[in-house]
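Exam revision sheet. Question 4 asks you to relate a sequence to its structure. Input first:
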Amino acid sequence: MISYVRGELAAVEPQKAIVDVGGVGYGVYMPQQALSLLPQPGNEVKLYTYLNVKEDAMQLFGFLTKDDLEIFKLVIGVSGIGPKGGLNILSCMSPDELRFAIMSGDAKAISAAPGIGKKTAEKLILELRDKVDIEDVLNNAAHGGDADRLQAGEAESSMQAEAVQALVALGYGNAESLRAVKKTSPDCQTVEDILKEALKYLF
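Answer key, structure tokens:
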């Protein structure tokens, strides 16, 4: 399996990026949102990839982060959704937006993706709801830098998760609690601080 490709971005096409790795051009299918974030051709890129092998073709699907790749693999693990369907979903919404939709049962948002009907979206929600948790949405520490920043990010994520759980216990929904907590200031020092600020967005 090809875990990632790193090389010079040779070109960006409507559905894929061409990455020159040691003189070999790899065509990597990517979500539209990710394609729009690529640098100009000539720059180096690193794409986390999933290799799909069929009888008549081998296709590489690429993502800017491991997080994007992991949510993609969860989505295509749902029966009835292939790699192209997973790509369509992630072209319409970010991984966090997809997690929000799954946790809140928003089949309408997911079925907005081309080729994904309402029944398929409902099936995806049913199968993935237990595989998506608050920490996945809140924890951006993996995108941090040094060890100190990583630990700070984990601590902040832990407090935010506690705040979300407290809001859910008060009767608010998962999705609205997550959105409110994500809007709070990074200057909040305690769970209580986060709760006080988050409640302002819920009233």
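Marking note for examiners. The chain is about 50% helix and 20% strand.
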